[in-house]
Amino acid sequence: MILLIQLTDPQLAQMLADYLQSRHMPCQLQVSETGVALWLLDDKQAAMAEQEVQRFVREPHHARYREAAWQQEKPSSWRSTTDAGLLTELMLQAQPLMLLVTVLTAGVFLLYWLAIPVETLLSFEWPWLHGQVWRLITPVLLHFSVLHLLFNLAWWWYLGGRLEQRYGAGKLAILLFSGALIPNVLQAMVSGAAFGGLSGVTYALIGYLWLRERGSDDQSQVAVSDGLFIFMLCWLVVGFTNLFGLNTANLAHLGGLLVGLIQGWRDSHRAIPKAK
Prior knowledge:
By secondary structure, this protein is mainly alpha-helical. The chain has helices at residues 10-22, 46-58, 63-71, 86-92, 96-113, 119-122, 127-130, 146-167, 169-191, 199-212, 226-241, 250-270; strands at residues 2-7, 27-32, 35-40.
């Protein structure tokens, strides 16, 4: 037996083990106080296994490892510490900034549900009136029903987690603030302060990820497919028609989408190497 690697995250260790097993490299996991050790059982495959381990270290969240984890049947001793399918995907997207905003949003809604007037501090306000500059941003934390909250947080978790995982917390922070500020200002110009929610930011993330990842060689890594983008675009148009009588912040949605598309276009062009 050869020790290939020791990891502190049991989920990642299990995914790597599943991937090696799928490549016909039998291995074994051992749990210790310092982490999870991955042992190769066949010494003859050491060189190939070490190459795969180095590739895993460079890109541990690549789709190939998740797919292998879904295809392999887990030993009973690992079912409590590793998740299959959707739950594994969701846990891998639990990134720091995304989680912080999720907790803040849920906390604000709890206070609102308890009839504590948080909207008096967080709803939109033009800063030259009372100097409360944060109120240009904080309406994204306000939600007025359980369905409104769950719908927006589901999108935030999926899109925000994907974006932070791939492009970093800094990029998510830029889209969070710009996708809040500009849509909030646009919406306030037509409806006053009577709005709230993360949906403008959601549209910014959709626009960014769709344009940033267009033409990707690995379609399994694309967070926003063409079909999803077209659906959300249609939903945006329906909001402006008021076809279903829904009270939606249409300009916030449109502003967020434009913010995401512009930032996605800039970043995708920066990522293209210049010809010498």
